[in-house]
Amino acid sequence: MTTVTAGMPNDADIINSIAEKLRIESGSNLPRDYFLPQARLQLSRKQAPDRTKDEKYQSSACFDAWAKPEQGRASN
Fold first, then answer.
1. Does 63 fall in a domain?
2. Domains held by the chain: number
3. What residue numbers bound the domain in which 27 lies?
4. What is the mean pLDDT of residues 28-35?
């Protein structure tokens, strides 16, 4: 349950505002409801305290190290 302070928007208002902004910026005729999941995701990223451990490894470096042979190493 969220507590609404006088003059402060609640979570639903913030999400709806972000979704509406995304809809306008997209220039499409899609309904605002289409943009709600993206707005929730965008808001959750802003509220995350720090990057998670796994986010550090979202690159191809790990795959490259595993899949590609080392330079100059003789293959058998």
1. no
2. 1
3. 1-49
4. 87
